[in-house]
Amino acid sequence: MARVRQDIKELIKESGGKSRAKRAAEDWYENGKKTSSEKSVQTIGGRFQPGKLYVFRYNPKYAAELPWYDANPVVLALDPDGNNDVGINLNLLPSDVKERLLDRIYNAYESEIKRESVGGKKNDARRQNQLSIRWEEAKNFLASYKFAIRQYIPSRKLGQAVVSYENWAKIVLCDFADLNGTSYAQLVNEFRNR
Predict the structure, then answer these.
(1) Helices 135-142 & 95-108, crossing angle to 10 degrees?
(2) How many Å from the N-terminal Cα to the C-terminal Cα in the chain?
(3) Whole-prediction pTM value?
(4) How far, CA to CA in Å, does 63 sit from each of 78, 152, 160, 178, 181?
(5) In this predicted model, what pLDDT tens digit does every residue of 55-103 receive, in sequence order?
(6) How crowded is the C-beta side of 122, counted as CA atoms within 13 Å?
(7) Which residues, 6+ apart, have CB-to-CB distance to 122 below 8 Å?
(8) Is the dihedral of CA 67, 73, 75, 79 positive or negative?
(9) Which helix (H) or strand (E) holds 159?
(10) Dihedral of alpha carbons 117, 1, 109, 174, sign
């Protein structure tokens, strides 16, 4: 079942087009961060929990020396690597790859996601438990997009928000990338040629 892609199609239909659905999703996210009554997107500190989606500002330790970086990643969290958080920066993936990846994750962990999406945990990003996803599994799926697996120093993340499982489709529609030192097209081209 292509749950995420199905939800995206429904959001586009309800909004009367993809650009309107994108605006609505971005408004939902921004407004949700500002109000405590919206539980499906919540500002939260601390380390990543595997399987959850996070959006945050990021200031890399050696930003001036890096050839490029994304200052506003949207990350599907994986298991940590020592003191660093690890995840797939969805901003670095083409839309179709991003949607297929999240559908694959949803299908593989459907029973866990459904268990975390009922009762008091429904649409409550903070209360939903992590998934048992590991970076080795993600790496095998991503093929030529392995560069999207990134490490983050927790103390360098700012304004981190977590998104509930039920709202993955909305966050996929959002365009939050803030690439420094490159464009998306240059980035994909560079890594495809390796």
Answers:
(1) 140
(2) 33
(3) 0.92
(4) 23, 12, 19, 13, 10
(5) 999 999 999 999 999 999 999 999 899 999 999 999 998 888 899 889 9
(6) 3
(7) 166
(8) positive
(9) strand 157-163
(10) negative
